[in-house]
């Protein structure tokens, strides 16, 4: 296994042994920016190799009579050059690296022979023993690249790579550089959308940012289980905003983010769902920028779509709905500060998803019926989405107030209005095993 960033050096392990008669593999990272690379073949193997080469920003030429649709889509924007024919001697002229990935061993052998003659390293996909280079299983963690050679067993290499990258992401494999002392280091803020609650549903970048943080400012709807794995020296600040209850003022949160970052700390603002979906994320970005603090936004999986999906409810369905709208229900219809046009929402034929709308649900349901939605319109209420206590109840607009009372529905809950609620009611098996409650 070899790990490192550009410019890294290293000595071979004292326990390294030759890998058969060809000798041990010498791990090296190729810098292919603007260098010509030729891939012979246009199938799935070539597709996968091209993806990595384009990430390295190589100038890729694909030689093949046919290519996958995904490769063809890269031709028009100029991401790669496609020679729509069979391989011919001389196709490797000017190349720094070559890949032989056809389903014809004879063609692959010819490509490898030309590469050998021209002193061009060549990966032959069908015959590892005849390749002058072996491609490792690779993974990335920021600017850190992990490459693993599995001693001839690609599945072994993949398993080890995945374990290392997962450990770097969740912090169980320490990255010394990412945990360096704050002294003399410029601070920054990363605004992370944590998803609907299950720690497994945060993005890879979001989890990486949490693992590297010096300070985490977290909401109560964020995936709090991630905080348990943080080192003791990481400062965790509770910035919860409880419905109709205790909450930290937004101005105080903004000040915390700015002050910790100006002190040289890596600060993560960990929020539930997506930070820009009723999350006041832009207010925090503006506060950071006004103070000269660099800020990165990591989008999250919004509960408006994820929670219904986890209950087996799609927000759109072909032939049934061509639109869906997400509405904040924290203010009831008619409230002087409400910005929602409830009559217009009621006239829509598609799906309505209501967030933060448990207490106001009776008033919202009445407004939707008053302005045109049928009282029999299906409604599903999903509580504690993505957690072990997730529960779904199904009712109608007319029956919603009584159902909420009878089932003792509490926040956090997402409710969905529309015909999509009636689709595949058995798909959304709640983690706690609670059956849907028809009303």
UniProtKB/TrEMBL annotation:
Pfam family, one: NAD_binding_7
NCBIfam families reported in the protein's UniProt record: cobA_cysG_Cterm (TIGR01469), cysG_Nterm (TIGR01470), PRK06136.1 (NF004790)
InterPro entries per record: 4pyrrol_Mease, 4pyrrol_Methylase_sf, 4pyrrole_Mease_sub1, 4pyrrole_Mease_sub2, CobA/CysG_C, NAD(P)-bd_dom_sf, Siro_Cobalamin_biosynth, Sirohaem_synth
Region of interest: Disordered: 1-20
Tetrapyrrole methylase domain ranges (all copies): 189-400
Compositionally biased region (Gly residues): 1-10
Active site residues per record: 219, 241
The protein's name in its UniProt record: Uroporphyrinogen-III C-methyltransferase
Catalytic activity: precorrin-2 + NAD(+) = sirohydrochlorin + NADH + 2 H(+)
Keywords noted in UniProt: Cobalamin biosynthesis, Lyase, Methyltransferase, Multifunctional enzyme, NAD, Oxidoreductase, Porphyrin biosynthesis, S-adenosyl-L-methionine, Transferase
GO MF terms held by the record: NAD binding; precorrin-2 dehydrogenase activity; sirohydrochlorin ferrochelatase activity; uroporphyrin-III C-methyltransferase activity
PANTHER family linked to this entry: S-ADENOSYL-L-METHIONINE-DEPENDENT UROPORPHYRINOGEN III METHYLTRANSFERASE, CHLOROPLASTIC, SIROHEME SYNTHASE-RELATED
Organism: Blastococcus aurantiacus
GO BP term, pick one: cobalamin biosynthetic process
Domain of life of the organism encoding this protein: Bacteria
The protein's annotated pathway: Porphyrin-containing compound metabolism; siroheme biosynthesis; sirohydrochlorin from precorrin-2: step 1/1
